[in-house]
Write a structure and sequence with these properties.
By secondary structure, the protein is an alpha/beta fold. The chain is built from nine helices and seven strands; from the N terminus they run E-H-E-H-H-H-E-E-H-H-E-H-E-H-E-H.
Length: about 200
């Protein structure tokens, strides 16, 4: 059977979105059925209007469906993306994750592979701590964390060398070709692991 993968993210100006698309592409290329979902925006309208990049990106991605809890229960595996907010997960993604208490309690999230990705302005702007903070939730869920690691050293090295998850330094511009290549690789890897694990969850 093919895996079902939900790529769920928050992006204010597009960097995390670009990585999310590449992960979704990689998972689909590996044969997975993929849902690309953005979490709901809850920042004040005035703040968004005062930042043209934020406003324009929100408008450009308005066609992407908003994530719901069904996207968690449906999936065999997840990829979660967030910009770094002071070394932590963005409030928008965190609010969605915090709403999943019921499905977590029902055992709907256990034993599902999950990976994370992020973007910060600086290269050392809290990327690793953001991913580790995200994974703290996954420990509670009983999910199976799939870090980038160095399973393909050259590929991950070219993408920035972060073994915890994909990470983009936006001060250097949009995600590089190397990062997007690594994202497609990681999406395919996540899909293949989810496909292997899914039958075991039913035993």
């Amino acid at each position: 059977m093919s895996a079902r993968i939900s790529v769920i993210y928050y992006s204010s100006t597009g960097n995390v979105h670009a990585t999310a698309e590449a992960i979704a592409e990689g998972a689909a290329e590996a044969g997975a059925e993929v849902r690309l979902r953005r979490v709901a925006e809850h920042a004040p309208a005035k703040a968004i209007e005062n930042n043209p990049e934020w406003r324009d990106h929100l408008a450009a991605t308005s066609h992407i469906e908003t994530a719901t809890l069904d996207d968690l229960t449906w999936a065999d595996g997840f990829a979660f993306g967030t910009p770094t907010r002071f070394g932590n997960v963005s409030s928008q993604l965190k609010q969605f994750i915090d709403s999943a208490g019921g499905v977590w309690e029902a055992g709907e999230l256990a034993n599902k592979p999950v990976t994370g990705f992020t973007s910060s302005y600086e290269l050392h702007g809290g990327q690793e701590s953001t991913l580790l903070s995200l994974y703290n939730v996954m420990h509670h869920w009983g999910a199976l964390i799939v870090p980038t690691g160095y399973v393909d050293y050259d590929l991950i090295h070219e993408a920035g060398g972060n073994p915890y998850g994909l990470a983009n330094p936006s001060s250097q511009g949009a995600p590089s070709k190397a990062l997007l290549k690594a994202a497609r690789f990681q999406g395919g890897r996540l899909a293949r692991i989810a496909e292997l694990v899914a039958p075991l969850r039913e035993e």
